[in-house]
């Protein structure tokens, strides 16, 4: 959790991105226990990181936070009651680490373009953008219901690739979004469903002092780094996460085929979104210039 909580504060990945696969695949902890622990521990670590972000007045994108959170609340509730019982945790994990890696490759390709422009906010924010963010927040909430994290990195993909919001702004914004989502998830399992297991509680109590320090430390460190360094840090996390999952899960041939398909489709989708946004921005600039 030293590493996981630092990642939670310094990247769009929650600490559950580290804890969940380690707990379920290496330590043989049941997925429901790992998920509930993830919600509980992030309620401490990510809240601490959020308080530091707000206290230092680190730049965030509030439209992103508001509308993604709105959709994420409904997605989390629906996922908890209707999706979690139906999905294999291993298959879901393979799917999402493949999708995140395709995003990392697409972002790397975008950042290799010397003329790439990034912004501190969503430019020309419209009603359609509100709908987009609510929809992606809803999907991200369903993902979070499975693993205890996910809405942050899923919506971060759209922010950086499609809206071209700087990684330096999108990262702390995603931390705040996951903070709200994880507190709600913790409340649902502890007070509504009342399925918060004693094992999850004991691990939570043991790790609270660690994450309360290292999550805000991660947020502080990332606030001092340049944008491209943040992006490089994220590439590293996504690559390690993908190959770590491959090493631990040891997927079958058909699971590898699924991962390859997701990688290809995800990379095509993200590069298409980036190209569409560039084209629309160019047309808009030409129209305003004329």
TrEMBL record:
It is a multi-pass membrane protein. The keyword Ribosomal protein does not apply. The chain crosses the membrane at residues 37-57, 64-84, 131-163, 169-188, 200-223, 229-249, 256-274. Its main location: membrane. InterPro entries: TM_pro_TauE-like. Keywords: Cell membrane, Membrane, Transmembrane, Transmembrane helix. It is found in: Cell membrane; Membrane. Pfam families: TauE. Belongs to the 4-toluene sulfonate uptake permease (TSUP) (TC 2.A.102) family. PANTHER family: MEMBRANE TRANSPORTER PROTEIN. This is Probable membrane transporter protein. It comes from Chryseolinea lacunae.
């Amino acid at each position: 959790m030293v590493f996981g909580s630092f990642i939670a504060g310094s990247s769009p990945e929650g600490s559950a991105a580290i804890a969940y696969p380690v707990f379920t695949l290496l330590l043989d902890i049941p997925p429901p226990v790992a998920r509930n622990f993830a919600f509980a521990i992030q309620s401490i670590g990510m809240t601490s990181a959020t308080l530091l972000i707000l206290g230092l007045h680190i730049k965030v994108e509030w439209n992103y936070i508001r509308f993604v959170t709105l959709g994420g609340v409904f997605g989390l509730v629906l996922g908890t009651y209707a999706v979690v019982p139906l999905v294999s945790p291993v298959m879901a994990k393979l799917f999402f680490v493949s999708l995140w890696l395709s995003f990392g490759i697409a972002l790397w390709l975008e950042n290799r373009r010397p003329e790439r422009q990034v912004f501190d906010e969503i430019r020309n924010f419209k009603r359609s953008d509100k709908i987009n963010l609510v929809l992606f927040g809803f999907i991200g909430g369903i993902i979070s219901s499975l693993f205890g994290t996910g809405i942050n990195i899923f919506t971060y993909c759209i922010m950086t690739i499609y809206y071209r919001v700087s990684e330096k702004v999108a990262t702390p914004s995603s931390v705040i979004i996951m903070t709200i989502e994880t507190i709600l998830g913790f409340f649902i399992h502890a007070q509504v469903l009342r399925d918060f297991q004693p094992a999850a509680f004991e691990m939570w109590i043991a790790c609270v002092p660690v994450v309360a320090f290292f999550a805000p430390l991660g947020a502080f460190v990332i606030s001092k780094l340049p944008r491209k360094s943040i992006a490089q840090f994220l590439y590293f996390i996504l690559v390690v996460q993908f190959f770590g999952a491959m090493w631990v899960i040891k997927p079958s041939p058909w699971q590898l085929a699924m991962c390859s398909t997701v990688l290809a489709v995800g990379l095509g989708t993200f590069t298409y979104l980036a190209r569409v946004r560039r084209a629309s921005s160019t047309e808009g600039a030409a129209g305003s210039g004329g």
